[in-house]
Amino acid sequence: MQTNVAKIMGDFRIGILDMNNGAPNEGMRCIKYLIEEFFMRKELETGYQVFDVRQGDKLPAYHEFDVFISSGGPGSPLLEGTEWERDYFKLLSDIREHNRTRPEKIFFFAICHSFQLLVQYFELAQITRRKSTSFGVMPIHIVEGEEEEPFFRGLENPFWAVDSRDYQVVQSDQEQFEAVGARILCLEKERPHVDLERAIMAIRFTEEIFGTQFHPEADAEGMYRHFQKEEKKKAVIENFGEEKFLNMLESLEDPDKIMLTESVIIPTFLEIAFQHKLEPLWSEK
């Protein structure tokens, strides 16, 4: 029994699908940090591999990893029929088929750009360009009835997260949601002065596939340092104004905002996937 536990714990494998298309990105650093922290907490040898999806890396077979985390990234998420899109969607289809037919499940977490790709893959809603970029630390509202979603336990409603996007997920197809078995979990902040539909911010696509429009991986300390760099500070102020910049820095220092969100959502996702990996051993007891 102990040998089997050690083997399974040692074989817990995570694939990171990097969607940044070669652009430097703080999100990748944050994802790696959370994964490394998870392995350290479990006293396991770190086991993850990064695939640069949009720059042509050959994607792994679905069964090579227990967990996939697919990052945010720059540019338009609208499908262009590229080879990497076909490969990415084939990986998703293989994971879904595996999960449909096998007791040992593969878990998948999609962030921002990847979330928008999954919405198109499942044909759940429309992707449209926003009138202006959404950027900053924003309130995220859990929809009524979804407060017990495991990934949100320990968070307030609304909770706070980093939002950075030029596109949005709107005009959901309820019949398709029901056909897939997907659920809308979160919406963007309330805007009573704006007569526009609130964008979808999180979806449980299946029991094992989950996605957020916001960035649950963002770490406050690293982002604070990042936006203190003169060129980053200047860019934010030029694009969004000094008040927005100062409000964001203040939010990054608040332990009840993105510090809390970072500590809950992805760590809980990894823990659930890990416990699922161990379930066959618990049943042997």
Describe the structure.
The protein has a single domain (2-130, 139-160, 167-219, 260-284), classed as 3-Layer(aba) Sandwich (Rossmann fold), CATH 3.40.50. Helices cover 42% and strands 22% of the residues. It is built from nine helices and nine strands. The chain has helices at 2-10, 26-41, 83-101, 113-122, 174-180, 220-228, 230-240, 242-252, 258-284, and strands at residues 14-18, 48-52, 67-70, 107-111, 126-142, 159-170, 183-187, 200-204, 209-212. A hairpin with a 4-residue loop joins strand 8 (200-204) and strand 9. The longest helix is centred in the C-terminal third of the chain and has 27 residues, at 258-284. The relative contact order is 0.16. The model is unreliable at 1-8 (pLDDT under 50).
